[in-house]
Backbone:
């Protein structure tokens, strides 16, 4: 299971500005009709990247300077709305390995965690500084250390946070809990019997 | 475990300070995991076609089984066309998705309320309707509006597809306890003010991210006086306020609703269960992490004006100006003005609409249809408005037809449809065109939500949508009562 351990993430960043960015914006519902997650990466922010006339907008994901970025910088309440894991899958399959932001919807961040994307929290001041830097120096790499919960870029180090049980899960490669849960099968069967309904 | 819970509750109330949340959590806790999370048993698992195919595929790939197939129930709601439910669907993707679910439920032995059972419908409408949803349960479904079921005093929450797989395989999830915020609604509601207005006011007050990290416990005289269907409207939209769970303590209204429903316990078993249900209520002096009071006397019919459900105002209020908001929220507010094409400080009342949608897991139950029909009776829908009435389930549809409500809708000029999610999210043929404005009883006014990337949604109660449909513009339903 060691190959599932996630301790360090490095890469260039792309800022997605604005608060309350909902899952319908991250991936519009019509793309949920596919019965696999395979192509979800193609649909990330689809309707924001494409104008109604079919031309490309100036959405950051369309800009050459952010091509290849693997860390997304977001605002507040990112991923609110639907429980569709398609949103997290779109982020993953687009090539994003970590998200840094002020806050997240719980279902969305849980979905990200379950597929190995840490949703890291920074203070509003640090969020603004990182956004500014990403806009000015899009190639500057960010180094995320999940052991020390720090982020280093251009010689500066910032604190990041993550629920401690998720930190544990990433460091130990148990972010998808299925195996952990399955290990307690006897207790599960006992609980099934004990339940008052 | 059950015994402990009951015993605890039989002690003098001063001794016990637990919330329903704590008690139901403790009853379902399997163990504490190495991460520090709890492994929580999920008593009832509901599934639909959209968020499950990948979960079943991974089960098959790893040659795994569904551990307790009798704890999972399936239906089809999101992709189903509502003009006609006949198969095969014209949309090949929708047909493939429906077939995938049919194959999966058959292979894994899961009970499926498909069209032929005459019990199909929106998953959050049929769970309660069939008596599957009961107090003191943990309920999960790959759908964020699972919070609806909290109206019965259960811990019910939306999960992603990876978690659907975990529940299928292990009937458990790895979770951390939430904090609990008590929201009391005091006083009485005025005529023309409905459950929808109450929850829109709560979200406007606490914000769309106010509930992150919390379960919401709704209570107080206004909630106590509500029917189960109204309570479901309240809990349904907890997630719009950022709270993954919203719940209401069970009471006689709850038990009366459950009694005699198809999957509800019967006879002595019902009485025995009722003891459990009574035991999990929050103690009178339960300790909450936070408490909020909303004065129900002051509430007026609410409408949204923006692109989040928190961007809501009273129907007679003006659209707020930028400096009414915190600096941090201003960019979303500016985005909302631009997208909606609305001007700050101008009235929302009188805004022309193109579409009226009555449906969704928020407001498609029989009482919602009755309220809308009251307004539409002997009236004609404005010629500029396309109106859709979509019952939440096949059973709601039959009930409405037995009461003649469909005749009222049709005579007014509305389309009377088959059960499904319809234009709430437009994964089916029902959708907005271009930048149409829709007066909608659904729960999300997100950009593009109703199927057009420039379509606009104004959320309100069923009676308010009916009134807007007649006038052709946003109007105060109280003028119709
Ligand atoms: S009616 Fe709308 S919100 Fe409810 S389950 Fe269907 S799509 Fe989701």
Residues:
């Amino acid at each position: 299971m060691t190959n599932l351990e996630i301790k360090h993430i490095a890469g260039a960043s792309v800022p997605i500005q604005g608060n309350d960015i909902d899952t319908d914006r991250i991936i519009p519902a019509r793309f949920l009709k596919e019965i696999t997650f395979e192509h979800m990466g193609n649909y990330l922010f689809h309707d924001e990247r494409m104008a109604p006339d079919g031309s490309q907008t100036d959405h950051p994901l369309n800009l050459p300077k952010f091509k290849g970025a693997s860390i997304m910088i977001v605002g507040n309440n990112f991923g609110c709305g639907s429980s569709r894991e398609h949103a997290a899958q779109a982020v993953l399959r687009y090539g994003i390995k970590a998200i840094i932001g002020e806050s997240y919807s719980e279902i969305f961040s849980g979905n990200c965690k379950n597929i190995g994307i840490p949703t890291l929290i920074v203070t509003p001041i640090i969020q603004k500084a990182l956004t500014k830097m990403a806009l000015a120096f899009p190639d500057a790499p960010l180094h995320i250390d999940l052991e020390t919960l720090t982020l280093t870029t251009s010689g500066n180090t910032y604190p990041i946070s993550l629920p401690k049980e998720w930190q544990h899960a990433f460091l130990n490669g148990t972010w998808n809990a299925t195996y952990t849960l399955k290990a307690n099968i006897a207790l599960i069967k006992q609980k099934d019997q004990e339940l008052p309904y | 475990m059950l015994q402990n819970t009951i015993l605890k509750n039989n002690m003098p109330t001063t001794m016990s300070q637990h919330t329903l949340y704590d008690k139901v959590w403790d009853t379902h806790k399997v163990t504490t995991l190495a991460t520090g999370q709890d492994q929580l048993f999920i008593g009832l698992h509901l599934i639909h076609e959209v968020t499950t195919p990948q979960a079943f595929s991974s089960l098959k790939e790893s040659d795994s089984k569904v551990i307790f197939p009798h704890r999972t129930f399936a239906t089809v709601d999101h992709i189903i066309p509502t003009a006609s439910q006949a198969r095969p669907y014209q949309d090949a993707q929708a047909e493939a998705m429906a077939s995938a679910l049919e194959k999966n439920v058959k292979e894994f032995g899961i009970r499926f309320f498909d069209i032929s059972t005459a019990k199909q419908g929106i998953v959050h409408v049929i769970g309660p309707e069939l008596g599957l949803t009961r107090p003191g349960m943990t309920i999960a479904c790959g759908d964020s509006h699972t919070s609806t079921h909290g109206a019965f005093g259960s811990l019910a929450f939306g999960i992603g597809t990876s978690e659907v797989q975990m529940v299928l395989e292990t009937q458990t999830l790895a979770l951390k306890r939430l904090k609990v915020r008590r929201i009391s609604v005091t006083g009485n509601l005025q005529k023309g003010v409905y459950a929808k207005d109450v929850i829109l006011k709560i979200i406007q007050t606490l914000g769309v991210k106010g509930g992150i990290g919390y379960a919401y416990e709704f209570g107080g005289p206004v909630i106590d006086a509500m029917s189960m269907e109204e309570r479901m409207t309240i809990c349904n939209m907890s997630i719009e306020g950022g709270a993954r769970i919203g719940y209401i303590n069970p009471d006689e209204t709850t038990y009366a609703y459950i009694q005699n429903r198809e999957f509800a316990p019967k006879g002595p078993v019902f009485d025995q269960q009722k003891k459990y249900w009574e035991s999990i209520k929050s103690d009178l002096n339960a300790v909450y992490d936070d408490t909020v009071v909303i004065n129900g006397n002051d509430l007026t019919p609410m409408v949204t004006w923006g692109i989040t459900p928190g961007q809501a105002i009273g129907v007679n209020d003006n659209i707020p100006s930028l400096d009414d908001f915190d600096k941090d929220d201003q960019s979303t507010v500016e985005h909302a003005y631009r997208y909606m094409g609305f001007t700050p400080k101008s009235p929302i009342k009188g805004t022309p609409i193109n579409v009226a949608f009555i449906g969704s897991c928020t407001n498609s139950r029989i009482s919602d249809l009755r309220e809308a029909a009251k307004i539409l009776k002997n009236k004609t829908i404005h010629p500029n408005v396309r109106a859709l009435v979509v019952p939440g389930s096949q059973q709601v549809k039959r009930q409405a037809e037995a009461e003649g409500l469909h005749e009222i809708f049709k005579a007014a000029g509305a389309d009377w449809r088959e059960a499904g999610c319809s234009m709430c999210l437009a994964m089916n043929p029902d959708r907005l065109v271009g930048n149409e404005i829709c007066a909608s009883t659904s729960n999300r006014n997100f950009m593009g939500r109703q199927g057009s990337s420039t379509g606009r949604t104004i959320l309100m109660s069923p009676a308010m949508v009916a009134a807007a449909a007649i006038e052709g513009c946003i109007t105060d339903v109280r003028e119709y009562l």
Observations:
- The pocket of iron/sulfur cluster is lined by residues B 77-78, 122, 124, 143, 145, 360-361, 421, 424-425, 442-443 (CB under 6 Å).
- The beta strands of chain A are 8-11, 13-15, 71-73, 98-101, 119-121, 142-145, 150-153, 156-159.
- The longest helix of chain A spans residues 124-136.
